[in-house]
Design a protein that fits this description.
heterodimer, A: mainly beta, seven-stranded mixed β-sheet, four-stranded antiparallel β-sheet, globular, B: mainly beta, six-stranded mixed β-sheet, five-stranded antiparallel β-sheet
Chain lengths: 110, 110
């Protein structure tokens, strides 16, 4: 069953803690992306990777880090430096032209 | 001027009517255009892609692209209550990134 999986679906953390969100895809896509969505706002690009062992900052990379050690996996770490980490985080991958999203992780930091 | 603009809505249409969703973009070099549907609390789902001027039909959905006017639209025929969602327009500014509009909320009432 091909697709993009994200885990966990819901995540709760205390302020000051780093947290890592998982994203896995078995679509054999080279490019992967992380977005953040806040209520009433559009999708904002955090990081993206077009190939293994390479990634680029998006529009709001501060306070986040990523790695791309395997084609299938693109984990996102939300660090304590991120001022407002509570949001809906979406991972996506892209084939030749079209980008597809995983189910998302809703992160709440208190 | 935002790179991709959509009316936030809500757009309210009666069941069975045609819903017309509009999107304008600023970069004349844009090549690829996409419509995503997002139900409340869920991730975006790709429903249409269009790459050349004119109309593209898929079931009850029709995407229309006019590059000269920098305008892309989505028509939904025979609208159903299950079509009630937020529709996101996305434009490929460069081959590696998508720019998203903030979405138009569609409400289909019985």
């Amino acid at each position: 069953d091909g697709g993009i999986t994200q885990s966990p679906k819901y995540l709760f953390r205390k302020e000051g803690q780093n947290v890592t969100l998982s994203c896995e895809q078995n679509l054999n896509h080279d490019a992967m992306y992380w977005y953040r969505q806040d209520p009433g706002q559009g999708l904002r690009l955090i990081y993206y990777s077009q190939i293994v062992n390479d990634f680029q900052k998006g529009d709001i990379a501060e306070g986040y880090s990523v790695s791309r050690e395997k084609k299938e996996s693109f984990p996102l770490t939300v660090t304590s430096a991120q001022k407002n980490p509570t949001a809906f985080y979406l991972c996506a991958s892209k084939g030749a032209y079209e980008q597809y999203f995983g189910p998302g992780t809703r992160l709440t930091v208190t | 001027q935002k790179e991709v603009e959509q009316n936030s809505g809500p757009l309210s249409v009666p069941e069975g009517a045609i819903a017309s969703l509009n999107c304008t973009y600023s970069d004349r070099g844009s090549q690829s255009f996409f419509w995503y549907r997002q139900y409340s609390g869920k991730s975006p789902e790709l429903i249409m892609s269009i790459y050349s001027n004119g109309d593209k039909e898929d079931g009850r959905f029709t995407a229309q692209l006019n590059k000269a006017s920098q305008y892309v639209s989505l028509l939904i025929r025979d609208s159903q209550p299950s079509d009630s969602a937020t529709y996101l327009c996305a434009v490929n500014i460069r081959t590696d990134k998508l720019i998203f509009g903030t979405g138009t909320r569609l409400q289909v009432f019985p």
